[in-house]
Amino acid sequence: MKQFQYVRALTQQSVLEAINKPGTKIIAGGTNLVDLMKRGVTAPDKLIDINHLPLKNITATKTGVHIGALALNSVVSENNLIIEKQPLLSMALKAGASPQLRNMATVGGNMMQRTRCTYFYDVTMPCNKREPGSGCGALEGINRMHAIFGTSTQCIAVHPSDMCVGLAALDAKVVIAGHKGERRISFTDFHRLPGDHPEMDNNLGKNEMIVAVEIPDNNFAKNSYYLKVRDRQSYAFALVSVAAALDIDNGVIRNARLAMGGVAHKPWRLFDAEKSLVGKSVSEESFKQAAEIAMQGAKGYEYNSFKLKLAPATITEALKHASGLV
Ligand code: SF4
User: Fold this and answer.
1) Which residues line ligand 1 (CB under 6 A)?
2) pTM, 2 dp
3) Average pLDDT in the 229-247 region?
4) Contact 315, 290 (CB under 8 A)
5) At the fourth CATH level, which superfamily is domain 224-323?
6) For the structural domain made of 5-51, what CATH number should be given?
7) 106/124 Cα distance (integer angstroms)
8) For ligand 1, mutation pick of 145, 155, 200, 303 (most atoms within 8 Å of CB)
9) Among residues of the chain, what percentage have pLDDT more than 70?
10) Cβ atoms within 10 Å, residue 112
């Protein structure tokens, strides 16, 4: 591993000044970044440790819940406010990684983690995300874990997070700090599709840092479910996952939120399927119709075409769980 400088930041301002310089990266839990450094995928000159910044709080606000970027995944998943008001997020977090990793990983770091495409981690293989213009090993390679939505000829990788799928479904906002102050963007606009620039995972500016995530209050707490289908029961990335949240009144769906993981370069929100559910009765038939709508535009590759069947089945099953049908 290349030698690097390590600096512990004590103020947000000092981080914003430091990340201006090329070769500088922020480290918090380090659960992905250190792996990337060991494998030679990234080789920063300087790491800014932000663990001592006051960004760990989880608080109720007038309009929702505010979660500091340094709150640990394990702490958020067990927090009473989250369990009571946003149980979908707690479920999604508990489905991710292992207890040890959740104890180190932060909310901001979870959002910034990179794809687990094996060609990205193998520095002897071509990968446009690691080395723009070098090609994509996965397009004609073993692409079982790869995307079926929003792909490009440059990259078919998926975003690996479970937490982000839950946050996308819950209309969360990302609070970003920069030299000009704070800005907020919709969670669904934070991560990017690969297009011609798969090296860019998200829309965070070079001189910016994530400071919090905010989730607006909603009526989904009673009828939420996160369903993750994976090769092992624990510590495995999603083949397909679904975050489902319903607002049900007397057996009729008033409002719905759906997002999928393991299928795209970003958490994949199912807006059209959500709309199709509004006003419908809770029934397997309505859920199957929504799943069919959700799959419009999906495209399989040699080894991942099974997701074209697995994904709608997972959507239907997640909705059945969320609604209480099972
Ligand atoms: Fe790299 Fe993306 Fe292709 Fe994987 S899918 S090899 S990350 S360019």
Assistant:
1) 115, 117, 119-120, 127-129, 136-138, 155-157, 198
2) 0.98
3) 97
4) yes
5) CO dehydrogenase flavoprotein, C-terminal domain (3.30.390.50)
6) 3.30.43
7) 30
8) 155
9) 100
10) 22
